């Protein structure tokens, strides 16, 4: 078995952006016909979401203008192709790799629908090899960024001397439901933003970057109701159960400790937490769990503040922050994300 390393991480932000304070008047207008107590409650959710700014594939006025599922998905497809191509090209440029040196391409997205999948367009646009292996990951939500890392790691472990790219492109703003006044929709509007990220990995002998010590998925039995989308005539309608933070908290020991033990590690040996910021409450829950152990998730909190939750791409933004740090050899990092299923995906790195 060869060593697999994370070589490069890059991000690409959509063209539009707004601070939360700039979005609040649009929220107030959107809820103008609702009960005043409800309006105040929703505005407080926005103000307390710990998100200062977010980016979008549409300007904020377009987001709050009722349109059909087809119209929003058309924008998603157009912008996903552009963002996906840009973020992979940026990663290739940063690493000094040629496009035709890639052996495996994984594209990750759950916020729109396109067939052929995004990877097919990127293969054409950047002239990737005709024999490149393609894997679109489309229905794993916020956990899919780490899922992509896991699939790439398994491929590379079994195939020494190869290169893989993971491209996550998400647009939660394209899923906004204008006539859905459920709390799930209110919370999702308050925390989500759009973004794209790319990770390049290698199993070549000369590969640079933190090596992957191990990876694993954890499935919560009979918890499919906690998170996901319902496909409706107006698009993808958010499912977000308020029990999610408690589910994470109560299952935390069996998610973390056996996984680390299998890899001859422990939470004491983990120096860096590379955690997906699902939202303020989940960040607080994990902060309390890890804080008791003297661990910081400041980079997770800061990523949420700067960009919001961009579904699968977000944990890769956190990973990029660690890739840019001067980390000592031998230090370990734990990547962790949660998503529909309900599931937890984990990966242990060593610098």
Q: What would the CATH topology of the largest domain be? A: Peroxisomal Thiolase, Chain A, domain 1
Sequence of strands across the biggest β-sheet: 1-7-6-4-5
Taken together, the total number of domains comes to 2
Biggest sheet features? 5 strands, mixed
Shape: globular
Total beta strand runs: 13
β content, as a range?
Answer: 15-25%
Question: Quick recap of the structure?
Answer:
The protein has 351 residues and is an alpha/beta fold.
Structure description:
The protein has 351 residues and is α/β, with parallel strands linked by helices. The protein folds into 2 domains: 5-202, Thiolase/Chalcone synthase (Peroxisomal Thiolase, Chain A, domain 1); 211-350, Peroxisomal Thiolase, Chain A, domain 1 (3-Layer(aba) Sandwich), CATH 3.40.47.10. Helix content is 39%, strand content 24%. The protein is built from 11 helices and 13 strands. The chain has helices spanning 20-30, 36-47, 60-63, 69-95, 118-125, 144-158, 183-191, 244-262, 280-291, 298-307, 314-323; strands at residues 5-12, 16-19, 53-56, 104-108, 133-137, 163-170, 195-202, 211-219, 227-232, 235-240, 270-275, 332-339, 343-350. The strands form 4 sheets. Strands 1-7-6-4-5 form a 5-stranded mixed beta sheet, sandwiched between helices. It has a 4-stranded mixed beta sheet with strand order 8-13-12-11, sandwiched between helices. A two-stranded antiparallel sheet has the order 2-3. A hairpin with a 2-residue loop joins strand 9 (227-232) and strand 10. The longest helix is centred in the N-terminal third of the chain and has 27 residues, at 69-95. The protein is globular. The two termini are 19 Å apart.
């Amino acid at each position: 078995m060869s060593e697999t390393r994370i070589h490069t991480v890059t991000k690409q932000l959509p063209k539009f952006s707004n601070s939360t304070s700039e979005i609040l008047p649009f929220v107030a207008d959107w809820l103008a016909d609702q009960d005043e107590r409800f309006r105040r409650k929703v505005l407080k959710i926005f103000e307390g979401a710990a998100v200062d700014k977010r980016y979008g594939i549409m300007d904020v006025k377009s987001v709050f203008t009722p349109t059909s599922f087809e119209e929003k998905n058309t924008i998603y497809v157009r912008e996903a192709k552009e963002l996906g191509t840009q973020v992979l090209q940026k990663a290739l440029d940063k690493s000094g790799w040629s496009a035709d040196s890639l052996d495996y391409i994984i594209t990750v997205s759950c916020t729109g629908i396109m067939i052929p999948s995004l990877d097919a367009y990127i293969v054409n646009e950047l002239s990737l090899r005709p024999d490149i292996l393609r894997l679109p990951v489309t229905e794993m939500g916020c956990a899919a960024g780490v899922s992509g890392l896991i699939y790439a790691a398994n491929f590379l472990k079994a195939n020494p001397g190869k290169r893989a790219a993971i491209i996550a492109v998400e647009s939660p703003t394209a899923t906004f439901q204008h006539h859905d006044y459920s709390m799930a929709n209110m919370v999702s509007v308050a925390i989500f933003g759009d973004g794209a990220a790319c990770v390049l990995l290698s199993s070549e002998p000369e590969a640079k970057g933190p090596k992957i010590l191990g990876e694993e998925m954890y499935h919560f039995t009979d918890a499919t109701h906690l998170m996901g989308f319902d496909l409706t005539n107006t698009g993808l309608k958010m499912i977000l159960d308020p029990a999610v933070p408690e589910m994470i908290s109560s299952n935390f020991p069996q998610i973390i400790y056996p996984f680390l033990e299998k890899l001859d590690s422990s939470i004491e040996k983990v120096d860096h937490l590379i955690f997906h910021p699902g939202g303020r409450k989940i960040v607080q829950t994990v902060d309390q769990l890890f804080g008791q152990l003297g661990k910081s998730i400041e980079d997770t909190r800061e990523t949420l503040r700067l960009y919001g939750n961009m579904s699968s791409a977000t944990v890769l933004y956190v990973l990029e922050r660690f890739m840019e740090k001067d980390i000592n050899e031998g230090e370990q990092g734990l990547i962790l994300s949660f998503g529909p299923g309900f599931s937890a995906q984990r990966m242990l790195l060593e610098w």
